[in-house]
Amino acid sequence: MELPVTGLYAGALTLLFIALSFHVSITRGKTDTSLGDGGNPVMLSAMRRHGNLAEFLPLALLLLALAEMAGTGMIWLHLMGGLLVVGRLIHPLGIAPDGGIFAARVAGSLMTLGALLIGAVALLLAAFG
């Protein structure tokens, strides 16, 4: 079974994952931190930017794939994927040693949770509808 919508968003979000991974590696070099955060708030911020995406991405992509397989309408699939991409792009702006842009963190979190909600509702409707 082909999953073109899931593939599109999985590809885009994987590029973001790779970028955040590089950011962690570069920050490790700059802060001379080989393991953990070393008590350095800059290192901790880089790790949490990457870690937060790593925590949400598997469930979000699973929901998107299952919703696509269940025949959820394209508008809903692209809304879910779009919310994920935009939310995950802006969320890291709110994670910084100085607090970052708090509104970006909140908006990114809400967009991500909205995408998860769309996926969950779509699957429940498919199961009971």
TrEMBL record:
Entry superkingdom: Bacteria
Localization (cell): Membrane
Q: Which residues cross the membrane?
A: 6-26, 56-79, 99-128
Q: Looking at the UniProt record for this protein, which Gene Ontology cellular component terms does it annotate, in alphabetical order?
A: membrane
Keywords, A to Z, come to: Membrane, Transmembrane, Transmembrane helix
Cited InterPro entries? MAPEG-like_dom_sf, Membr-assoc_MAPEG
What is the name attached to this protein's record?
A: Glutathione S-transferase
Which organism is the protein's source? Kangsaoukella pontilimi
